[in-house]
Structures are given as C-alpha cells and as structure tokens.
Amino acid sequence: QVQLQESGPGLVKPSQTLSLTCTVSGDSITTSDYAWSWIRQSPGKGLEWLGVLDYDGSTTYDSSFRSRASISRDTSKNQFSLRLTSVTPEDTGVYYCTLGWQATTVPTTYTYWGQGTQVTVSS
Asked: Would you state the pLDDT for residue 43?
C-alpha cells in the first residue's frame, strides 16, 4: 500500500516561496508509469491541479502555475517537492500530493492522496 505524507510550513508571507515535500512509502517514486502530482483546494474553489512529476523525472505544469511552480524529486529519500514562488493570499489552501497511473490534469484521476497540508499566505 502506497502512502504519501506532505510536510512544510503552514504559514508563508506574501511574495515569499512556498516549499512542500511529499514523502512516499510503500513503493518507489521511480516505478514505471507512476505519475506524482500536486493538487490544492482553496477556500471556495474546487480542486486545482498544479503539475505532475512523471516516473522518469519529467514535469508538466498547469498553464496558470507554469511561471511560478517547480516540482522536483530526491530519489535517495523517495520524496518529491513543490516550490511555488511569489505567493499571494490566493495561494492559501490545502495542498495534496497524489499518485496516479498516468499524468493527467484531472484531479479525480489520481488514486492515492496524502492527508493534505494547510498552507496560509498572510503577513
């Protein structure tokens, strides 16, 4: 059973960079055909797909976040991370790391989810 656990600061100041890490257990992040994604839910909004890290290390981002988001991995720790620069209060929300069997932009296609971590952007 694959398990995902998000970690990172719960409070970030406007204009700063948000950094979150997802620690994966139960399988390797380099397993073929796995797609590791970051998804968030902001107050009053539905689920937003930010981007995906494929098992081969390639990344794809939603056009809305492409200029600010970066997803990377540390295979030695079986972790992948999200960096979101120049945050504003609109980036407040619950951030989830997820696993799916193909790299899609549709949040509901991802099968395994972490419990989510609340991030608040405020001065």
From this structure: 87
